[in-house]
C-alpha cells in the first residue's frame, strides 16, 4: 500500500490578553476579532524553516569561500570555527563518485519520530505543495544531494545524475541520468525522460498550472528541459552562475525529487495523486494528513540501504506531549522548543548530527510595487489594498512611474517602522528562548553573515514604543488598528509575544490566521495576500534569495507577498554574476532597501535541530540543510536502533 490520505483539523478558538504569555493553535478564511484581545481561530481545512550550539552542546560555524578548480562539481567549503559564520564566497570543486559499496545488512526494527509540522501531500508533481518533504524523508531523490567532505566542507553529491557538461556560453547543461536507479513499485529504472517530464511539469514557465512548492525557485534560472536521448537531459538556462546547481538542484534548501513518467502514463493523474513514487531509500507506505507518515526501507538501495526497516513520523502539535513521548521512549527523536534543550541534555538526550539557524521575521505583505514582469515586461495586475495600514501604493496618483512619496507610501512606511520598533527582542529571547537565541533585525539575514556584521549598526532596530506611538499618530492611527497575521499550524509563541506588545503599547489588535499552509498558499502564489506573515528565506547572502520578493516565480510560484523594484534589480545581478564584489553590492543594496522601507523586520534568531535519545538509537550521519522541515529530522537511512 502506498496511500496518501487527507484529514481535516478541528475548530479551536482562543483569546489571549496577557502581555508576555506563551501561546499556540489553526484557521481558515473566517475571521473573528474580540476587542482588546489577540484572537486566533482554526477551521476545517483539507489537508513548513539552523547551527547547533556548544553553550547548549556544540556550535557549528561555517565560512563560505570561493575558488575555481579544474573539474566540474560544486562544493561550498564550511570551515568550523568557534565564533562566527562567514558566507562571503562560494567554492566550486568536483568530487569523483567512488565505487558503490555493497550493503549486506537486512533492515530491521522501527524508528518513531515526532514533529509539530503537518503537511498536505500529492503524488502528482504539479499539484504537490510539500514535495520537498519527500526528499527530506528519503522517499525521493533530487539531481544532487549534499554531504560533508573530510574537512567538514559541503560537497555536491550526484544522485539522479552521474555526470554533466555545461556549454561554454552557459546556455545549457547536459545531465546524464544515473543508470540502474529503479522507481518504487516496479515502474522501471529512471532515465532522462523522467527527469525532463518532471521538471517541465513543475516549472511555471512550461506549466503555468503548476503549484509545486519548489517549482517557483526556477523562475529566472531554468527556461525548459528537453530530451537529448534516453540517458541525457538538457537544461536550457535563462541564467547560470556558480551557485545554480548547489542552491536550486540539491536537497540543501528544499529538494526536487524525480517522479516517474511511466507511473503517470500508465496509471493516470488521479492514481498517482494518492500514490507517491520515488527512487529513495524509503518507499512511502501511508501518509495520513495531520496524523502520521509511514515508510519502509528499500533493501539493496543503489545509494544507501537503511538500517531500520520502517520509519514512522507522528504529528504531535503539543510541545509537552512530544517531550513526554521522548522521555518515555514512545518516540526516539523529535523537535522541542529551545528552552527545553538544556534539561533534555541533562537527561542524556542529544542533538541530531546537523543543525542550523532559524529566524523569526515578518514580511509586510501586500506591497506589490513592481509595475511590469521581470522577464516578459508585461504590465502586472495587482490589488494594492491601502486600507491595510502597512500597505502602500506607489502608483495611486496614476501613471507607471514608481513614486515613493504618495500619501499611502509615506503613511504605510510610518506604520511599518512603528511595528518594527515595538518588538522587545531582548525579552523575547530571554523569556521564550531561554536566552539561547539572539535578537534579529532584518529578513533574509543570519546575524553571523559578514554582510550583516558590516552593516549591523545601520540596520538594527531600537525598541522604542513611545517613538512608534508617535509615528502611528503621524500616520493617522492614534488609536491603533486591526491587523491579520498568518502563522500556520506550528509553534508561534514568539509571534504572540510580539502581538501582545503591539496591543499594549500601540493598541494594534492582531488576529492570527492558523489555517493549514496548503489552504493558505494559493493567496501568495496568486499575489493576492496582504496579511503579514513569516515569509522566507535565509542563507548565504550572495545567493539570489530575492526570487521570493519579485515576479521571477510568477505565475505559479511562491512569493512573500511583496514585489519590489530593488528585488528585481538585485536578483538579475545575483542570478547570473560570477563576480563576488558585484554579488556583494547587489546584496547590500537589497538589504538597505528593505531596511529603509521597513519591509522585512526580524524578531529573533535561534539554533534549531532535532533532539534524539542516544540510549535508543545511534545517529552518526545526516545530510546538511539550510531550511527546517520535519522538525530537523532527515537522513533516516543512517539511523540505527540499539
Strand numbers in spatial order across the main sheet: 1-14-15-16-7-17-27-18
Instruction: Tell me about the largest β-sheet.
Output: 8 strands, mixed
The number of distinct β-strands equals: 29
What does the radius of gyration come to? 24 Å
Helix count?
15
Low-confidence stretches: 6-101
N→C terminal distance: 28 Å
Helical amount = 10-25%
Instruction: Quote the CATH topology of the domain at 360-606.
Output: Dipeptide-binding Protein, domain 3
Could you describe the 3D structure shown?
The chain is of the alpha/beta class and 642 residues long. It contains 15 helices and 29 strands. The longest helix has 17 residues, at 580-596. Helices cover 22% and strands 19% of the residues. Residues 6-101 have low confidence and may be disordered. A hairpin with a 5-residue loop joins strand 8 and strand 9 (154-158).
Short description:
The protein contains 15 helices and 29 strands. The protein is an alpha/beta fold and 642 residues long.
Question: Keyphrases for this structure?
Answer:
about 650 residues; alpha/beta; Dipeptide-binding Protein, domain 3; eight-stranded mixed β-sheet; five-stranded mixed β-sheet; 15 helices; 29 strands; about 20% helix
Q: What topology emerges from the helices and strands here?
A:
Blueprint: E1 3-5, E2 12-16, E3 38-42, E4 63-64, E5 75-76, E6 86-87, E7 110-115, H1 132-137, E8 144-148, E9 154-158, E10 161-166, E11 172-177, H2 192-202, E12 222-229, E13 232-237, H3 244-248, H4 261-267, H5 269-273, E14 282-288, E15 292-297, E16 310-315, H6 319-327, E17 333-334, H7 341-346, E18 350-351, E19 356-361, E20 367-368, H8 407-420, H9 425-431, E21 438-439, H10 450-459, H11 465-475, E22 481-486, H12 493-506, E23 508-513, H13 517-525, E24 532-533, E25 562-563, H14 565-574, H15 580-596, E26 602-608, E27 611-612, E28 617-619, E29 639-641
Helix pairs in contact: 8-11, 14-15
Amino acid at each position: 500500500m502506498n496511500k496518501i490520505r487527507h484529514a481535516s483539523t478541528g475548530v479551536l478558538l482562543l483569546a489571549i490578553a496577557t502581555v508576555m504569555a506563551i501561546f499556540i493553535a489553526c484557521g481558515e478564511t473566517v475571521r473573528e476579532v474580540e476587542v482588546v484581545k489577540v484572537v486566533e481561530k482554526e477551521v476545517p481545512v483539507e489537508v513548513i524553516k539552523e547551527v547547533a550550539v556548544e553553550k547548549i552542546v556544540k556550535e557549528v560555524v561555517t565560512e563560505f569561500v570561493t575558488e575555481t578548480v579544474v573539474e566540474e562539481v560544486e562544493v561550498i567549503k564550511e570551515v568550523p570555527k568557534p565564533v562566527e559564520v562567514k558566507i562571503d564566497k562560494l567554492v566550486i570543486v568536483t568530487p569523483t563518485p567512488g565505487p558503490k559499496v555493497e550493503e549486506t545488512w537486512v533492515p530491521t526494527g522501527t524508528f518513531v519520530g515526532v514533529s509539530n509540522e503537518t503537511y498536505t501531500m500529492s503524488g502528482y508533481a504539479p499539484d504537490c505543495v510539500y514535495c520537498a518533504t519527500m526528499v527530506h524523508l528519503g522517499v525521493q531523490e533530487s539531481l544532487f544531494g549534499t554531504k560533508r567532505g573530510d574537512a567538514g566542507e559541503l560537497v555536491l553529491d550526484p544522485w539522479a545524475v552521474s555526470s554533466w557538461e555545461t556549454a561554454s556560453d552557459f546556455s545549457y547543461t547536459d545531465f546524464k541520468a544515473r543508470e540502474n536507479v529503479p522507481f518504487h513499485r516496479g515502474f522501471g529504472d529512471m532515465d532522462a525522460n523522467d527527469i525532463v517530464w518532471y521538471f517541465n511539469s513543475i516549472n511555471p514557465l512550461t506549466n503555468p498550472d503548476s503549484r509545486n512548492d519548489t517549482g517557483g525557485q526556477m523562475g529566472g534560472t531554468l527556461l525548459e528541459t528537453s530530451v537529448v536521448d534516453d540517458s541525457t537531459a538538457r537544461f536550457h538556462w535563462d541564467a547560470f552562475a556558480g551557485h545554480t546547481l548547489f542552491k536550486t538542484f540539491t536537497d540543501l534548501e528544499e529538494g526536487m525529487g524525480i517522479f516517474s513518467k511511466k507511473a503517470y502514463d500508465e496509471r493516470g493523474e488521479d492514481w498517482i495523486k494518492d500514490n507517491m513514487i520515488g527512487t529513495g531509500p524509503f518507499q512511502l507506505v501511508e501518509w495520513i494528513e495531520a496524523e502520521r507518515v509511514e515508510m519502509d526501507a528499500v533493501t539493496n538501495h543503489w545509494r544507501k540501504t537503511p538500517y531500520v526497516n520502517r520509519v514512522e513520523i507522528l504529528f504531535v502539535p503539543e510541545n509537552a506531549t512530544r517531550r513526554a513521548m521522548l522521555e518515555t521512549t514512545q518516540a526516539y527523536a523529535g523537535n522541542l522548543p529551545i528552552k527545553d534543550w538544556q534539561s533534555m541534555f541533562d537527561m542524556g538526550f542529544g542533538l541530531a548530527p546537523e543543525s542550523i539557524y532559524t529566524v523569526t521575521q515578518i514580511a509586510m505583505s501586500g506591497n506589490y510595487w513592481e509595475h511590469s514582469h521581470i522577464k516578459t515586461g508585461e504590465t502586472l495586475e495587482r490589488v494594492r489594498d491601502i486600507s491595510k495600514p502597512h500597505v502602500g501604493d506607489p502608483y495611486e496618483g496614476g501613471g507607471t512611474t514608481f513614486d515613493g512619496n504618495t500619501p499611502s507610501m509615506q503613511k504605510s512606511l510610518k506604520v511599518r517602522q512603528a511595528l518594527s520598533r515595538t518588538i522587545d527582542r531582548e525579552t523575547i529571547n530571554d523569556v521564550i528562548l531561554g536566552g539561547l537565541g539572539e535578537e534579529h533585525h532584518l529578513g533574509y539575514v543570519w546575524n553571523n553573515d559578514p554582510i550583516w556584521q558590516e552593516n549591523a549598526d545601520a540596520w538594527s532596530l531600537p525598541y522604542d514604543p513611545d517613538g512608534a506611538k508617535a509615528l502611528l499618530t503621524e500616520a493617522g492611527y492614534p488609536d491603533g488598528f486591526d491587523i491579520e497575521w498568518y502563522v500556520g499550524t506550528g509553534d508561534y509563541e514568539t509571534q504572540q509575544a510580539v502581538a501582545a506588545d503591539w496591543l499594549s503599547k500601540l493598541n494594534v489588535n492582531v488576529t492570527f490566521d492558523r489555517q493549514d499552509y496548503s489552504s493558505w498558499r494559493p493567496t501568495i502564489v496568486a499575489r493576492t495576500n496582504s496579511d503579514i506573515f513569516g515569509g522566507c528565506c535565509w542563507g548565504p547572502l550572495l545567493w539570489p534569495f530575492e526570487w521570493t520578493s519579485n515576479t521571477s516565480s510568477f505565475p505559479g510560484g511562491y512569493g512573500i507577498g511583496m514585489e519590489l523594484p530593488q528585488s528585481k534589480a538585485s536578483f538579475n545581478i545575483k542570478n547570473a554574476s560570477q563576480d563576488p564584489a558585484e554579488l556583494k553590492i547587489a546584496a547590500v543594496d537589497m538589504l538597505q532597501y528593505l531596511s529603509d522601507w521597513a519591509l522585512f523586520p526580524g524578531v529573533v534568531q535561534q539554533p534549531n535541530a532535532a533532539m534524539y535519545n542516544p540510549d535508543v538509537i545511534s545517529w552518526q550521519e545526516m545530510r546538511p540543510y539550510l531550511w527546517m522541515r520535519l522538525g530537523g529530522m532527515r537522513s533516516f537511512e543512517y539511523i540505527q536502533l540499539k
